[in-house]
C-alpha cells in the first residue's frame, strides 16, 4: 500500500497492490490542545490506534472473486468521509489498515492555504 492522500474535502485516495480490503478508522482530535501538548503530531499519529475510533469503514479494493492478475495490478480507490462526519468542521487522524503496517494521515478542516517556496525561504499562509 502506497502512502494515502487526503484532499480538502476529506476524500482518502488509496493505492494498493495485492490487497483485497482495507479498514479505515477516523479519530477526532482537538488540534489546539493536541498542538500545545505535542507540536509535531505527524511523528506520533500511531498513538491514536489505542483510542476507540469515532467512525470506521471497510473498503473492498478489488472484487471478492478477483483473479491473480487483478490482484497484481495497482488499484486506486477514493473513499469519502463517512456520513456522520459530513458537514462537520472536524480535525481528524485517519488510519488506513491493510496487510502490513497501518498508515496514518492527519486531516485538518480549515480554510487556510499554505504556499511554500523553499528556494526563497518563504512560507505564506492565506485565508
What does this entry show, briefly?
The chain has 127 residues and is mainly beta. It contains 2 helices and 9 strands, in the order E-E-E-H-E-H-E-E-E-E-E.
Commentary on this structure:
- With 127 residues, the protein is mainly β.
- The protein has one domain (5-126).
- The protein is 9% helix and 39% strand.
- It has 2 helices and 9 strands.
- The strands form 3 sheets. A 4-stranded antiparallel beta sheet has the order 4-3-6-7, with no helix packed on it. A 3-stranded antiparallel beta sheet has the order 1-2-5, with no helix packed on it.
- β6 (91-97) and β7 (103-108) form a beta hairpin.
- The longest helix is centred in the N-terminal third of the chain and has 7 residues, at 31-37.
- The mean pLDDT is 82.
Amino acid at each position: 500500500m502506497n502512502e494515502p492522500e487526503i484532499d480538502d474535502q476529506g476524500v482518502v485516495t488509496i493505492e494498493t497492490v495485492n490487497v483485497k480490503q482495507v479498514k479505515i478508522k477516523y479519530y477526532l482530535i482537538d488540534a489546539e490542545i493536541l498542538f500545545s501538548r505535542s507540536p509535531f503530531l505527524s511523528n506520533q499519529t500511531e498513538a491514536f490506534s489505542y483510542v476507540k475510533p469515532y467512525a470506521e469503514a471497510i473498503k473492498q479494493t478489488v472484487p471478492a472473486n478477483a483473479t491473480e492478475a487483478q490482484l497484481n495490478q495497482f488499484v486506486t480507490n477514493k473513499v469519502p468521509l463517512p456520513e456522520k462526519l459530513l458537514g462537520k468542521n472536524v480535525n481528524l487522524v485517519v488510519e488506513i489498515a491493510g496487510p502490513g503496517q497501518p498508515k496514518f494521515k492527519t486531516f485538518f478542516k480549515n480554510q487556510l492555504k499554505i504556499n511554500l517556496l523553499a528556494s526563497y525561504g518563504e512560507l505564506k499562509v492565506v485565508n
